[in-house]
Amino acid sequence: MDFKNLIAHCKEYGFIFPSSEIYDGLSAVYDYGPYGVELKNNIKDYWWKSMVQMHENIVGIDAAIFMHPKTWKASGHVDAFNDPLVDNKDSKKRYRADQLIEGYVEKIEAKNLKDIEKARARFGDAFDEAHFRATNDRIIERQKQIDTVLDRLAQAMKAGDMEELKAMVDEYEIVCPESGSRNWTEVRQFNLMFSTQLGNIAGEEGKLYLRPETAQGIFVNFLNVQKSTRQKIPFGIAQIGKAFRNEIVARQFIFRTREFEQMEMQFFIRPGTEMEWYHYWKEARLKWHKALGTDPAKLRFHDHVNLAHYANAAVDIEFEFPFGFRELEGIHSRTDFDLSQHQELSGKKIQYFDPELNESYVPYVVETSIGCDRMFLAMISDAIREETVPDAEGQDSVRTVMKLHPVLAPVKAAVLPLLKNKEELTKAAMDVFDKLKLSFICQYDEKDAIGRRYRRQDAIGTPYCITIDFETLENNTVTIRERDSLEQKRVHISEVKQHIQDGIAMEQLFV
Ligand code: ATP
By alpha-carbon position, which residue is closest to atom 29 of ligand 1? Predict the structure, then answer.
């Protein structure tokens, strides 16, 4: 299914609505609807359980969104959490200069890909892409150009050299995608933090920020948590919460928004052991994704070459979204940067006494950080498909189905009386529904033909449909229709709950 239809599906079936839509919406802000909130909660639940419940040495917290302003000075966000902003004077649209330059590089690469595809068609099975790339003059020339541009971009970004970025935009004759003009302003640094004002203190003193990441709430609570839980290093602190970034360009649905949710875990370790833990968490996190049955071809690692100021190793887990491979999660070896900075700015000692080494030190940190909204988008784009249904007719012969892992599915079971106007059936169905709703989210639906009702459940990803028919009245059995295989099993009413519980159990993801 293409991306536009996916977005339309999310709205039509109550997963995601544009924010304040009656006022024509607010750009890049979205609300999660009745099924969206269930799916999102299930994602968070899976993450929380896999981190906190499954590790005796990881505990959770829920820190406030507002933090002392010095937090953001210490973390480097006040001075360095910037993107290079450039305006087009004709369209009045704003862009990130680095993204414009990356777009220029993508165009060159697209030419290479076109040549490669042509050659592949010509040489067939004998085609060797690596050899072609290494020997074709035009490709070599373009690759050189790409490397030069990317190198220049990386250096300019590292040095915060806005003039150089502007020079590149001009030199490469980059045009505004809206107006087609090259009438650009200067490039300037734009801080991504939203600020607001504390009620009782005027001016700079009372300036507060909405947190741009949840991690700092963990760092400043390191000693509180360690002392109150008597954890010994290595141990971790996990947190799920909202983060805010005033992104210059926010688009691609919920992939990049200005308000989003993060699921972050900081793992505190002995200095010198960071590479060992970095590799451990890299593999553990990939396993977490794969356990959901996500197509493994859509997941890959991408090592960072240009490291952030706080990191000594960093990798992204990328997912192939409908618009290409993009970052879904980051795993970062953050050294002792954050704790040392907080120690310095607060004037409070933030150290751990290691009884085995008989010495105190500022712990090192390996973090895993994933956006809940991006995970949501990854899951629905991997799950959704259009299929023809064997043995069905007319409108019911095609189905849009969300093949979400049952653990994530918003509604676990739908209870459907075969006919609406037969009271014995609706009553029996209601009895089943009332029993099941004590254990998981169910729906009772009696409207429309049974085929239509199955389609509605397929569209929201319900793994089980329980149908109550005339045989139910005779022998207390029902049919359970399985969403993916379309198989129907006859099961005694007393076994229905267990059957569903087995299918939706989170334990199966942890083995
Ligand atoms: P990007 O390069 O895509 O802006 P980032 O490297 O700045 O991301 P991190 O600071 O590492 O991202 O944040 C950790 C995670 O938070 C990301 O992997 C992503 O899943 C999520 N995230 C970051 N920014 C956004 C956003 N604007 N909207 C939604 N999710 C986000």
Answer: 256
395-510: CATH topology is Rossmann fold (3.40.50)
- Answer for the pair 211, 225: CB distance below 8 angstroms, yes or no: no
Which residue do the tokens 């900081």 mark?
266
pLDDT (0 to 100) of residue 376: 98
Distance from residue 387's CA to the centre of ligand 1 (Å) = 33
How far, in Å, CA of 374 to CA of 322, rounded? 12
Tell me, using a 6 A CB cutoff, whether residue 329 lines ligand 1: yes
Q: Is the minimum distance from the CB of 327 to ligand 1 under 6 angstroms?
A: yes
Q: How far is CA 113 from each of CA 109, 124, 132, 133, 319, rounded to the nearest angstrom?
A: 6, 16, 11, 10, 21
The protein residue with its alpha carbon nearest to ligand 1, atom 26, reads 256
If you search the block for the tokens 């003193």, which residue do you land on?
Answer: 205
Q: What is the dihedral of CA 18, 21, 24, 27, to 10 degrees?
A: -30
Domain locations in the chain as residue ranges: 37-64+211-384, 87-191, 395-510
245 in contact with ligand 1, CB cutoff 6 A? yes
Q: Enter the tokens of residue 83.
A: 């993107």
Give percent of the chain with pLDDT exceeding 90.
Answer: 89
Whether 262 lines ligand 1, by a CB cut-off of 6 Å, is yes
pLDDT at residue 143 in the model: 95
> Which residues in the chain come in under a pLDDT of 50?
none
Tell me the residue type at 110: A
- DSSP lists the bridge partners of residue 263 as 240, 370
247 lines ligand 1 (CB under 6 A): yes
β-pair partners for 401: 385
> How many Å lie between the centroid of ligand 1 and the Cα of residue 375?
11
Give distance in angstroms: CA of 195 to centre of ligand 1: 19
Side-chain-side CA neighbours of 321 within 13 Å: the count stands at 23
CATH class as words, domain 37-64+211-384: alpha beta
- 208: β partners: 196
Q: What angle do CA 394, 379, 266 make, to 5 degrees?
A: 170
Ligand 1 mean position, distance from CA 212 (Å): 10
Whole-number Å distance, alpha carbon 324 to ligand 1 midpoint, is: 16
Q: How far is the CA of 257 from the centre of ligand 1 (A)?
A: 9
336-378, pLDDT tens digit by residue?
999 999 999 999 999 999 999 999 999 999 999 999 999 999 9
Backbone angles phi, psi at 336, to 5 degrees: -105, 20
C-beta atoms surrounding 22 within 10 Å? 6
Decide if 216 contacts 72 (C-beta within 8 A): yes
Intra-chain end-to-end CA distance of the chain, in Å: 32
Rounded CA-CA distance 355/66 in Å is 35
Q: What is the pTM of this model?
A: 0.92
